[in-house]
Amino acid sequence: MTQTISNCYRFPKLTAGRTPTTRNLLIATFIVWGSSMAGMMDRSALAQPEAHQVAETDSGDVSQEPSTAINKLIANLDSPQWKVRSKSTQRLAKIGVPSIQPLLAKLTGECSLESQTRGIKVLQQIADSNETTAENAAVEALQSIAATENMRLTRHAQVALRSVADKFNDRTIQEFKALGAEFGVPSRYGGSNATMATYAIKFGEKWRGTPDDLRKFPLLTTVDMIEITGEKFDDAFMIALGKHADPEAIWLDHVVMTDKGFEALSAFKNLREALIWYTPVSEASLDVISKWDKLSQIQLFGTGLKRDCENKLAVATPGLSVIYKHGALLGVRHEPFRQHATNGVRISVTVGSAASRGNIREGDIITSFDGKEIGIFLDLQDAIADKAAGDSVVVGVLTNNGRDEAERTVTLGKWEKD
């Protein structure tokens, strides 16, 4: 390049006494600049490391990219050159499935923050590729990373999962339904809403899945409550649930688990409501409840805990509303606008309840319960709360609009969902 410029622009011969013109000086400067640029271009072309050149290639079937080339691309995620890092990121995402396992091995080992950030970005792009096999493989890789002990890496993976979760929500609902889960508004009891949650996944007797199937739980973006009913759900299920789910509300009904399973649920960070019915809870598990720092209300029905658990939880978690019942249900409601009684409380009776089976009738006035005098409805609630389902008690009533006294022997029932 220097020779070409020199041939076109020769220096004019200077004679003694003549000074260079401005034109001559400009020409000389241009020649020197051109020579310098040509040398720099030649050196730049020779200076590119061979490993970095992998990022520049774009030929052949990307799905058949050799493992050595993939490993070089992964190494280049931490290149000092931004262009190389960027092109390696794009190339790995384009390769797709073959990139995932080598990338997963790199991310879960020793690697820089730059490699972690770009590696997660590659998996996120593959998970959003509209190719089912690649999407599922990338999501599983992100879920594996989210379950690691590396908190920084875990947060990156969780953010990536949330970014693709909306796309996967409907598909994941269908996958859970195929395994026997049900979806809908939260269940009710006693004719009232049990929770402020709006959309629940319900695990019951129809569930045919395994604890490992819960790995896709983070993709359920519309679910804010989990209902679990039945003795088939044990510690293994709870451990998987604690690892992959983070609901705003949970309802455990007749679940069989130990302190180990309950401890796994301490991982919940956004739990606001908990309904625990006829599920064993030990004194040790009260520590788990106190770790749910966003919890505002908990129901403990038939858990085996003693009544003083209310005070213990109130001390450990100020502001927490605790509704405690030993588990018994009489099946009556207060009728304050029909009271007109000097002692006792007038009640209405739920059809098919323990009270109905015990011959307590609509409009009767309950004056005593298991030998305890009843003055207001709260007295009756407290008396029932100390009893277990199946206990037999004597209930004193005024019948015939308060004119006749009678005693009814009642076998108490238990709380059930509507």
List the helices and strands and how they pair.
Blueprint: H1 2-8, H2 22-47, H3 67-75, H4 82-95, H5 97-107, H6 113-127, H7 132-146, H8 151-178, E1 182-184, E2 188-189, E3 192-193, E4 200-203, E5 225-229, H9 235-244, E6 249-253, H10 259-264, E7 273-277, H11 286-291, E8 297-301, H12 309-316, E9 321-325, E10 328-329, E11 332-334, E12 345-349, H13 354-357, E13 365-369, E14 372-373, H14 377-385, E15 392-399, E16 404-411, E17 413-414
Parallel strand pairs: 4-5, 5-6, 6-7, 7-8, 8-9
Antiparallel strand pairs: 1-4, 2-3, 10-17, 11-12, 12-13, 13-14, 13-15, 15-16
Salient structural properties:
single chain; 418 residues; alpha/beta; Leucine-rich repeat, LRR (right-handed beta-alpha superhelix); 7-stranded mixed β-sheet; 40% helix; elongated; disordered N terminus
